[in-house]
Amino acid sequence: MELTDLTIKKAHQGLVNGEFSALELCKAYLDRLKEKEKEISSYLTVVEDFALSQAKKIDDMILEGRDLPVLAGIPCAIKDAILVEGIRCTAASKILENYIAPYDATCVKKLKGEGAVILGKTNMDEFAMGSSTENSAFKITKNPHDLTRVPGGSSGGSASGISANECVFALGSDTGGSIRLPACFCGTVGLKPTYGAVSRYGLIAFASSLDQIGPMAKTVEDCKIVFDVISGKDEMDSTSVEPKLKVQSEKLKVNELRIGVPKEYFIEGMEKEVERVIKKVIKKYEELGAKIEEISLPHTEYALACYYIIALSEASANLARYDGIKYGYSVSDKPASLMDVYLQSREEGFGPEVRRRIILGTYALSAGYYEAYYLRAQKVRALLRKDFDEAFKKVDVILTPVSPTTAFKIGEKINDPLKMYLSDIFTVSVNLAGLPALAIPCGKTAPHHFAKEVRKQKRFNKEKIFSSGNKNLLQSGGGLPIGFQIIGRPFEENVILSLGEIFEKYGRAH
Ligand code: GLN
């Protein structure tokens, strides 16, 4: 097995047993990165020297015979919306192009405390606004399963980095699906924790009542390891709380669990292959003894509209701090008036999607419209939350697809924002209700389905479809990853993680 194929658990064992050093492990990843970045572009910043010096410290620890925490020496990547002291942090925006983080985000401080080796900062949609990572001001990240497709967004670089073995695990952030969607499109695991379970201190804010930092990794077990490290109350974030684990993982018995399957999540327009694979997952859990119940989350159809009012309103307020004065990009030829410094810096610094959202959010909050949009959306949010409360009286967890489609083509939705927003249809409710949710890969589209799609595209557009990515995919007979989502009660991350581990152990559908 290559060093870059390892999970956290296996890399840790290798380090403890002296099979390789932390420096060797780190170098293996840096070499892999140099080779893969040319085609994937997962990273915005790579901090080679910093990574090597961190790894060296771990080797010294090993030499001294000290106990090794499980993350010590493990190479990881951090989404570029999360601050790492002394390293550039751009949120993939021109407005923060030269911004150097003055302190560590709490979750980064915790990772460093455990000895994790940070390789760099990953690409994303600008200010985490998007579902494909195409909104980055700097580069387009490719899906390692098919280089002509998006990795999902907004934490696309974190997901593609894991999938292309350019890091062992990564941190992402999820406001409306940004951990789960890219995890799903790239065939990796991602956890969106309960609102408050992980400190947001040091996360560049998009929509503060929805944002959460969470782990992304190759396995559920790895996500659990990282979540254990980064979660907990932080005095720097008053919305953070100490999770009280109600069900110990060891005690979780799948045959005592009731899994709800909401009928609103199996909609028209869903790809047939997604439906086929998700139904197989449900069947697998049933075979393992879980009780499957059809449930209803009746307000689901309003979730997307509600999300886009609330998220954009909060974003318009949060992004007011980028004014060309305090920090970040400032227009170079200084205009005569202060107002023009504000206006021009923002116009030149923000990309088109961010500007669109600020305008919409400001409109929704403006006098006369506030009641009609923002306040209304808050009421709908309460109804959505109530749907889940009612459902969780009948079932212990809820199982849904992560996305109605598999990874789409680069360029396919970028000029149609509404189409892009629809990618989040199965993920936003979870953020609005503040719940934890885990995205797990569960299979791929069948090769014949993929071949059919290639033929269709060949017929309808003249674009170059036989890129190296597509060719590899066809040759390997593989298709595109499909993922499912397990939603839990607040602070029951351990329940959804355990259930995910059970699937990984017994159920992976092929
Ligand atoms: N895709 C969603 C949006 O564009 C969610 C983004 C996120 O979770 N950060 O808002």
CATH class of the largest domain: Alpha Beta
What percent of the residues sit in helical stretches (DSSP H or I)?
40-55%
Most strands sheet:
11 strands, mixed
Enumerate how many helices there are, as a single number: 17
The total beta strand count reads 11
Q: Could you describe the 3D structure shown?
A:
With 510 residues, this protein is an alpha/beta fold. It folds into 2 domains: 3-230, Alpha-Beta Complex (Amidase signature (AS) enzymes), CATH 3.90.1300.10; 249-305 and 373-505, Alpha-Beta Complex (Amidase signature (AS) enzymes), CATH 3.90.1300. It has helices at residues 8-16, 22-40, 48-63, 106-114, 156-163, 180-186, 220-230, 272-287, 303-318, 338-349, 352-365, 371-394, 417-421, 428-433, 447-460, 468-476, 493-506; strands at residues 43-46, 75-79, 117-122, 169-174, 189-192, 212-217, 258-262, 291-295, 397-401, 437-444, 481-487. An 11-stranded mixed β-sheet has the order 1-3-2-4-6-5-10-11-9-7-8, with helices on both faces. Mean pLDDT is 93; it is low at 462-469. The structure holds glutamine (GLN). Glutamine is lined by residues 128-131, 154, 174-178, 206, 311, 424.
Note the main attributes of this structure:
510 residues; 11-stranded mixed sheet; Amidase signature (AS) enzymes; 12% strand; 17 helices; 2 domains; 11 strands; binds glutamine; alpha/beta
